[in-house]
Amino acid sequence: MSELLLRDARIQGHEGPVDLLIRDGRIAELRELRELREPRESPESGGDGRHGVEELGGKLVLPGLVDGHAHLDKSLWGGPWVPHDAAPGLMGKIRNGQERRPEFGVPNADFVTALLENMTACGTTHVRSHVDVDPLVGLGSVEAVREAVERHGGRITAELVAFPQAGMLISPGTEALLEEALKAGVETIGGLDPAGVDRDPVRHLDAVFALAERYGAGVDVHLHDGGTLGAWQFELIIERTRVLGLGGKVTISHAFALADADPDTRDRLISGLAGAGIALASVAPNRGLLPLRRLSEAGVPVTLGNDGVRDLWSPFGTGDMLERAMFQAKGTGPRDEDIELALDAATYGGARALALPDYGLTVGDHADLVVVDARNAAEAVCVRPRRSLVVKSGRIVARDGDLV
Amino acid sequence: MSELLLRDARIQGHEGPVDLLIRDGRIAELRELRELREPRESPESGGDGRHGVEELGGKLVLPGLVDGHAHLDKSLWGGPWVPHDAAPGLMGKIRNGQERRPEFGVPNADFVTALLENMTACGTTHVRSHVDVDPLVGLGSVEAVREAVERHGGRITAELVAFPQAGMLISPGTEALLEEALKAGVETIGGLDPAGVDRDPVRHLDAVFALAERYGAGVDVHLHDGGTLGAWQFELIIERTRVLGLGGKVTISHAFALADADPDTRDRLISGLAGAGIALASVAPNRGLLPLRRLSEAGVPVTLGNDGVRDLWSPFGTGDMLERAMFQAKGTGPRDEDIELALDAATYGGARALALPDYGLTVGDHADLVVVDARNAAEAVCVRPRRSLVVKSGRIVARDGDLV
User: Fold this and answer.
1) How far apart are the C-alpha atoms of A299 and A295, rounded to whole Å?
2) Complex ipTM, two decimals?
């Protein structure tokens, strides 16, 4: 039995400060200040349990940050600095990533591990990572990411998406590899611009959804396609999700068409997403921000993600989800309730989109949490202080911005 | 005589690592690694000098960050968290700031001091701050900022701009107060949307430039006005700068019209700015980013600034100029040379725009510098690590992200 007591914590929804007792990886008790006894090494525990008390001094406790859209396998974090040199546009980046990957030994479990370490130091406790699957790399990226997650020793839980980054129909052999990845236990099947990149949206989505059905996998489709072309593909995804009863297991990533749409189209698409049980993932770009308020009102879960972090697509990013929430909030509004919605997408919304069980800060939930020196959620996002403490499954995994 | 030796520093433009000897607030020597003797308490120094050696282990030394557009007087940093509640638009924010200022005791030298401390911890060594001057606050904001700068004890040098935030012509009594501020030694006279806010661009600019001429002051005009209205006001400012020979002393802040302009108009405006010796200031907003490459080619100095930090205008901001450079680079380009231009606007470009003498990292320059654990300028902007060391006038003022 291991116990950890967090004293004098501020938790949104509780009037005053509370103590929070964690036992065996879950939140066991939550009480008014000083009501809980301190954990003690009990004779029957045999002395092998870990016990501790942390005085938080009124700091804010948030549930562990959820990165709902990462590309861990692509990262060069901890590796060489590679000046960006891709041709402009989506296809330029795809080609650059494919062609220069071997030059830097990508995928590389060392780089992925280094990035996971920084993500933990920043308070992320769960990540959904798209992982390239293509005829050149085969399942090598899946293996590298799995190795790194294993090495990281439970500090972050990870869900992988078998992702046809080079296209599926236009890249023969990819579909079979995606199926291999699912057979090997990868949880989710990815899609990529069924029209814009893969050139045959109906066949692309039919193949992706067929694989999902066959293997009980989730679906996460990158949809950069904007305007009416993107909006129409929303419809294709909504139809298939409804027909196959895959509500709660499907995500549209980026979803730029929603930002492009006129108000009527936007409302129609949002209502379709809500009805079908489809979530959205965004990386909070400068342009193409999701309308969080409307999505929240309609009950569409939104997850934020850091996207690629320092890779052959972009030199930017650090893996910090509070920073990502700030990018979103800077665009969607400065009011506390807007900033809270942005943070929600990096916490509870992400958990809903990714269907994480027992996520949160109530008794019985997994003890995944992050402590920040802030008075409320909005201040945490605006200031993004060093994370005072990060707890994963009841264990302290980072302190004062450094990995433990 | 005080001496500080920085060993094993990486400085852009130098092939290998160098040692840097600082003496009496200036860079005294710059040599290949291990060529310089360590500073020693010399008998003739009388024992009152400060001497030190810092091993940088190959970390990157940048010149001190320059915040070229701040509103120190408005900040609530270190004070209460105030949920944002302004009506939308520029006038909503202006009114909100004016009306709610007394409620929170703004201006407040304590808040300004707290913000200056965070700016120092983030590596800023010089700031140009606009300071509200209006019939309600009189010169109270000028006094509060001056008091805070004084208290901050030389860790940051500051230039103030007497700024008619509530308008000048539309706010009777303001023009006389601005003149009082200049008489009291405020270095620069500000203007604000001569057309959009003050409703009479010719009279507004004539008054501002007349005050500048009379008191030998610089000019810094906030120009949110976009499109053709903004572009036309560029012309008015260019004409006045030329006629009065004020080249090198005039800045246009925000300058959104430049981002709105068609390519021909943009080129004509840029050429006019370059010819007249006018600088631009930007806060790197999501929309309305300045075209740094073209401005650099034309020789127009650009300074970046943090704008208001946690105030009645916006809850965002921390005072970190590397973050501001990242905002700019995220919009203007991921290549190393683009990111370097963004950082230039937070360093050398800012110094040119603000006419700071002896700024830089060559022998004879003021020893204002910041040390970061990065391999090059682009990495410093992308990662924004805790500042390892901040030196102002040869004195260590922050270490590992904390004020010394």
Assistant:
1) 6
2) 0.95
